[in-house]
Amino acid sequence: MPRREITSGNWAFAEAMRQINPDVVAAYPITPSTDIPMKFADFVANGKVDTNFVTVESEHSAITACVTASAAGARVMTASSANGVALMHEIFPIAGCFRTPIVFGLVNRCLGAPINIHCDHSDSMAERDAGWVHLYCEDAQEAYDTAILSVRLAEHKDVLSPVFVCQDGFITSHGFEPVNLLDDTAVKAFVGERKADFPLLDIDNPVTYGSFVMSEYYFEIKRQQVEAMKNVLKVYDGVAKEYEALSGRFYPKLDAYRTEDAEFIVVVMSSASGVVKDVVDELRDQGIRAGCLRVRMFRPFPAEEVAAALGGAKAIAVLDRALSIGGTAPLAAEVKSALYDAGKSVPVQSCVYGLGGRDFFPQYARDLFCDLAAGRVLREERYLGLLE
Amino acid sequence: MKQRGNSAEMGKPKKWQDVPMGGIAFGSSAEAVETGQWRSMRPVWDGQKCISCLLCWNQCPDRSILTDENGKVSGIDTFYCKGCGICAHLCPKKAIEMRPESEFTGPGACAKGE
After folding, report:
1. Least CB-CB distance to A208: which of B4, B13, B24?
2. Cys bridge to A70: A2, A76, A92, A228, which one at CB 3.0-4.6 A?
3. What ipTM goes with this model?
4. CB of A215 within 8 Å of any CB in chain B?
């Protein structure tokens, strides 16, 4: 039966994994994603799943085992964070190129050094060009739902690409809140069985993965990955609507909150968007036309939809929880590029916040909206909450 | 995306859409690849000295040590042999000798060879 439980982002993700019952999970624990393989190991030990749970010696081995298991035709899931994600970096483009669906619980944590266990998006942003879908979740409910939805997205015949399901480390992963959980049989019916087209284990139809491909065809294979990401933009809403029919919850690529007639919009991802939405309500009560655009899908980047949602505003602020040191922060760069392509020259204030788990307070959002309303948009990047 | 088929029969793709997804090679098998072409040193077996202890057969990283119907060593198949020399190193009777591949190529090579 569907049920409502007080649970955390990590536990909710692990619960989704139990219901999905993947063929293979290969994982190496790292804070703050540790709860996911830990909870899942309980399920394995207690016979709640029949997954082949591979306890490897490093994150590099974990993702390698995941890629090969997926190429073999298995349904595969794993989780990691921060420097664990960075250690997997070499293998991510291989997963993308081999077109191996993997649903990956990425619990965002800043990359060391300095060593720090708290949230920012520097770990996943460093993997934005690897040929993976990136979905950023606002809360535990969304992390749970997105885990289930992503199985279908990753294995879609026009996509066949791995998916990062990102949630904010500690803020979401360790925060306990009510989460609506689906019935086990409903989840199993929704995800079905994986039917791989070219599994390595089909010994009657042998295939080789990882052949040497020189300058003759490397470019063409990369172009196919670009197409797969374009296809994500086309098929995503269909999968999300099917999930809505099951759960009553619809997750669009972009969560546009009171943006329709907004003059001033803050663009943000993941958990901080809740704070921004509260401030939007506050300002709307005062007659200020504020809005919040939460970007849930970062790869592929839904540029046309972003430009459509933002193009009518008088000023925009983009909040990045990651730096591109020496360049434009990742989300700001995408937003500016989307507006330029759409022929919209709206002033954009790029802001970096929350690095290393620095709190993001409502006052920051209030001040930011005030600056936008007063026309104070700087060319240079601003740092919210920095000691200065 | 091409449907399943033998890579050798596919011909050269002319457009990016026709290249097999992810560079997957269909119907391929390492069995058909003559890795022996990489070899610079060739093992030469002496049937007079060999006692068929099968150390070489057991340790060969490919499957280059040939045996007859009685399970006795009968020679070396150089199709896969990369010339690593493990067989010669292990042989208790020095029945396998590693010789430079150059001895088996070029004018007059046949006279020196197997």
Report:
1. B24
2. A76
3. 0.87
4. no
Query: CATH says B29-102 is which class?
Result: alpha beta
User: Residue A121 is encoded by which pair of tokens?
Assistant: 């998006």
Structure tokens at A99: 């077109």
B29/A206 Cβ within 8 A: yes
**What is the phi/psi pair of residue A351, to 5°?**
-130, 135
CB contact under 8 A, B22 and A97: yes
Q: In 3D, which of A161, A197, A191 has the Cα closest to residue A67?
A: A161
Q: Which residue spans of chain A are classified as CATH 3.40.50.920?
A: 254-384
**CATH no. of A254-384:** 3.40.50.920
Q: What are phi and psi of A6, to 5 degrees?
A: -85, 115
CA distance A49 to A19: 8
Max Cα distance, chain B (Å): 59
Closest Cα in chain A, distance from residue B23 (Å):
7
Give A128-171 pLDDT, tens digit per residue: 999 999 999 999 999 999 999 999 999 999 999 999 999 999 99
Residues 6+ positions from A69 with CB-CB distance below 8 Å:
A23, A24, A26, A52, A54, A76
Q: Which long-range contacts (CB under 8 A, 24 or more apart) does A322-328 make?
A: A322/A120, A322/A121, A322/A122, A322/A125, A322/A352, A322/A355, A323/A122, A323/A352, A323/A355, A324/A125, A328/A381
Helix (H, G, I), strand (E, B) or coil at A361: coil
Tokens of residue A258, six digits: 């009171």
Residues 109-128 in A contacting B (C-alpha not used; CB under 8 Å):
none
pLDDT score recorded for residue B109: 57
Count CB neighbours of A373 within 10 A.
16
Question: Residue A175 and residue A271: Cα distance in Å, rounded?
Answer: 11
Nearest CB among B4, B21, B25 relative to A208 is that of B25
- Check CB contact of A45 with chain B, cutoff 8 Å: no
Q: In the predicted model, is pLDDT for residue B9 greater than 70?
A: no
- Tens digit of pLDDT for each residue in A280-294? 999 999 999 999 999
* B9 vs A289: which has the higher pLDDT: A289
Chain A residues within an 8 Å CB radius of B29: 206, 208
Helix, strand, coil distribution of chain A in percent, nearest 5: 40, 20, 40
Look at residues A348, A360, A356, A180 and name the one whose alpha carbon lies nearest to residue A271: A360
Torsion on CA atoms A136, A82, A322, A261, rounded to nearest 10:
10
Q: What percent of chain A has pLDDT over 70?
A: 100
Give pTM, 2 decimals.
Answer: 0.88
Q: How far apart are alpha carbons A307 and A1 in whole angstroms? A: 41
Size of interface A-B (CB pairs under 8 A): 55
**The listed CATH number (3.60.15.10, 2.40.110.10, 3.40.50.300, 3.40.50.970) that belongs to domain A3-247:** 3.40.50.970
